[in-house]
């Protein structure tokens, strides 16, 4: 058996032509493709809008060309004006919130300062009254020092409070909030009715800056003068641009273009005359009275507390009870004056008259500037303008026309007609 295996091995190894090739055949696996979802990439405008966690609500419009690729630059000025107007709208909304918050803060100032000063004044006056009684066992020196310090502190606090007039500041912030909300509505209307123009964007920007100047937020440096020489109407609108001086187009003696007629122009001029002679004059008169009253009260409060502080400083057995009586009486009067001035909010009343006078000045200037525009096509539509004026004055169209037909100084049965243009206030 062993010899047979050896012979087979020699026979296989001795034949060079026969070779054994061994190969392992592996079956081919099917190719599998994995689909990886693409991560959407944000455009530059969206990335800038959402940076730092803040989301900007300004819409960016993309102009797509014929091949589907948006251009790099804006091809339409109207779309850029829309973006700018949205930016102004966001600033206006922020200012509404700012003036509202500051107004609430300053209203708290008025209440807290009023209560604190009255408590300090009445406490010092009570101490002076106790000293004036001359009761046995009363420490005159302690009451004297305490009342003097309290009256001195009340004097300083009153000077500061009368200088800034918190109630007047609150009224300023109320009016600023209302006017910024009004501007917000105007901008939203422009965006709703169509694509705005560059002129409308410029006009909105000027209105925002005019309101910032008319109702400043800081107290130092730019605070409005609280005690001017006389009442000056508040101005919160930009200056009216110079109107054109072309001649009007007449047809058969009547102007009939863009809703304007000669009768309507005459009606608007009569309304302006009534506003000048009645509304503006009356509110300026009342505002000057409120200003004079506020000046007297603002000077009387610190003067009375100062007299009370001097009287309490001279209290003692050598001067008798008169110094203590003077301190107690002056302190009580100072508390009454302070309550009437700041509790009655005389500064707020003056600011209300000042803003009302400004409102009538705005209506007057808007009518005059519209009538001075000689190109009827450039004017606002006459019927729409008449309706706006009637709503501003709280009248219907028929009431406004009746007002124009009977000026305030005409007489019926010998008695003058005493009618104001506005029925709102």
Automatic annotation (TrEMBL):
Transmembrane segments: 112-132, 138-159, 296-316, 322-340
Keyword Transmembrane: yes
Key words of the record: Membrane, Transmembrane, Transmembrane helix
Protein name (Swiss-Prot/TrEMBL): F-box protein
């Amino acid at each position: 058996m062993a010899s047979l295996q050896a012979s087979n091995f020699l026979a296989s190894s001795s034949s060079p032509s026969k070779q054994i090739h061994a190969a392992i055949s592996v079956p081919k696996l099917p190719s599998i493709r994995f689909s990886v979802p693409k991560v959407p990439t944000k455009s530059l405008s969206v990335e800038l809008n959402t940076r730092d966690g803040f989301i900007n609500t300004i819409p960016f419009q993309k102009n797509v060309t014929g091949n589907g690729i948006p251009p790099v630059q804006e091809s339409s000025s109207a779309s850029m004006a829309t973006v700018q107007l949205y930016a102004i709208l966001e600033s206006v909304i922020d200012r509404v919130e700012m003036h509202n918050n500051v107004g609430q803060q300053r209203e708290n100032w008025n209440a807290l300062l009023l209560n604190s000063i009255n408590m300090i004044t009445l406490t010092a006056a009570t101490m002076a009254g106790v000293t004036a009684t001359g009761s046995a066992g009363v420490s005159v020196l302690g009451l004297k020092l305490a009342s003097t310090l309290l009256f001195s502190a009340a004097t300083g606090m009153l000077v500061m409070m009368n200088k800034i007039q918190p109630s007047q500041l609150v009224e300023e912030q109320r009016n600023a909030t209302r006017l910024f909300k009004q501007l917000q509505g105007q901008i939203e209307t422009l965006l709703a009715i169509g694509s705005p123009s560059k002129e409308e964007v410029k006009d909105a920007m000027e209105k925002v800056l005019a309101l910032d100047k008319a109702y400043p937020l800081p107290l130092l440096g730019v605070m409005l003068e609280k005690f001017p020489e006389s009442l000056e109407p508040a101005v919160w609108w930009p200056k009216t641009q110079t109107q054109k001086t072309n001649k009007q187009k007449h047809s058969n003696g009547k102007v009939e273009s863009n809703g304007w007629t000669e009768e309507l122009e005459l009606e608007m001029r009569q309304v302006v005359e009534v506003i000048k002679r009645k509304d503006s004059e009356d509110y300026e008169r009342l505002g000057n009275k409120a200003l004079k009253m506020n000046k007297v009260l603002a000077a009387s409060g610190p003067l009375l507390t100062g007299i009370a502080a001097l009287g309490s400083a001279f209290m003692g057995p050598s001067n008798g009870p008169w110094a203590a009586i003077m301190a107690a009486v002056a302190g009580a009067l100072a508390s009454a004056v302070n309550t009437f001035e700041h509790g009655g909010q005389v500064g707020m009343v003056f600011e209300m008259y000042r803003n009302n006078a400004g409102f009538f000045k705005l209506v007057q200037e808007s009518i005059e500037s519209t009538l001075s525009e000689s190109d009827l096509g450039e004017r606002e539509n006459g019927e729409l303008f008449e309706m706006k004026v009637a709503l501003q004055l709280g009248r219907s169209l028929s009431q406004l026309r009746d007002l124009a037909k009977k000026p305030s100084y005409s007489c019926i049965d010998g008695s003058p007609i005493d009618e104001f243009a506005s029925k709102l206030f």
